[in-house]
UniProtKB/TrEMBL annotation:
Keywords: ATP-binding, Cell membrane, Membrane, Nucleotide-binding, Nucleotidyltransferase, Transferase, Transmembrane, Transmembrane helix. Belongs to the adenylate cyclase family. DacA/CdaA subfamily. It is an enzyme of class 2 (transferase). InterPro entries: C-di-AMP_synthase (IPR014046), CdaA (IPR034701), CdaA_N (IPR045585), DisA (IPR050338), DNA_integrity_DisA_N_sf (IPR036888), DNA_integrity_scan_DisA_N (IPR003390). The gene is cdaA. GO terms for molecular function: diadenylate cyclase activity. The chain crosses the membrane at residues 6-30, 42-62, 68-85. PANTHER family: DIADENYLATE CYCLASE (PTHR34185). Its EC number is 2.7.7.85. This is Diadenylate cyclase. Pfam families: CdaA_N (PF19293), DAC (PF02457). Residues 86-246 form the DAC domain. Catalyzes the condensation of 2 ATP molecules into cyclic di-AMP (c-di-AMP), a second messenger used to regulate differing processes in different bacteria. It catalyses: 2 ATP = 3',3'-c-di-AMP + 2 diphosphate. It comes from Clostridium neuense.
Amino acid sequence: MEFMHIANSAIKGMTIWSVLDIIVVSYIFYKGYMLIKETRAVQLLKGILLIILLIPISDFLHLTMLNWILQRTITIGVLSIIIIFQPEIRRALEQLGRSAFNENHILENEAEYEKIINEIVNSVGNLSEQKTGALIIIEQKTGLEDIISTGTKIDAIVSAALLENIFVVNTPLHDGATIIRNGRIAAAGCFLPLTSNNDLNKKLGTRHRAGIGISENSDGLVIIVSEETGNISLAINGKLTRDYSKEKLKAILMRIIRIRYSRKTALKEKVKRWRKAGKNK
């Protein structure tokens, strides 16, 4: 009855701002869960929830020592959570910082981008046939200047011939990653962070782990060619999909580009309508 009285009082005192507050908090919790879904952080979160659940139970059963230990664990755990969830927190802040109006590293012309994708796909197809390892990153909203600085800056037009030449075995730049920014080859021979995901297939080599690692820390499109099998893989947002043909790779890249351009166009149209409505007032 007491619970029903509290619930009834809360409902009567609700305003539109209370509803908005609940929706915003729910959305934040949802996005937080989606961020750590299928990662090791989920298991840690389950452990924390179990401790929180045991505190009132231990208090109700008068388990004084257990209750004292659990409460101290939660107190110390606040700092521990920040340390343990550091990769997830960093990724969340990076996603928040990706503004729809901040696309300095992305070409404005979709047709021009299609030409560049054709050059990339043709080079990847040839490298695959030759079983020459390759790692190419197409930069998106997240800037990769820190990664570019680890390699050799090139600033050249994207061409299949140049990309193939970069990855020729035993040449100085073949063993690193090549970054494509704003429709140009920005740098080659770049060093990437390796993924810390221990659940990956043990057969995946350093090149694939590096590709997954940079896709976990940015929204870049990462294309990987296996040196052992010649298989073409694509890593996006920490997820690796394998066994692409030239046609399939081009189709998925163009689909991503078209979705991005359609969203960008829709946002620009909304801004125009808002500005027009403001002037009319």
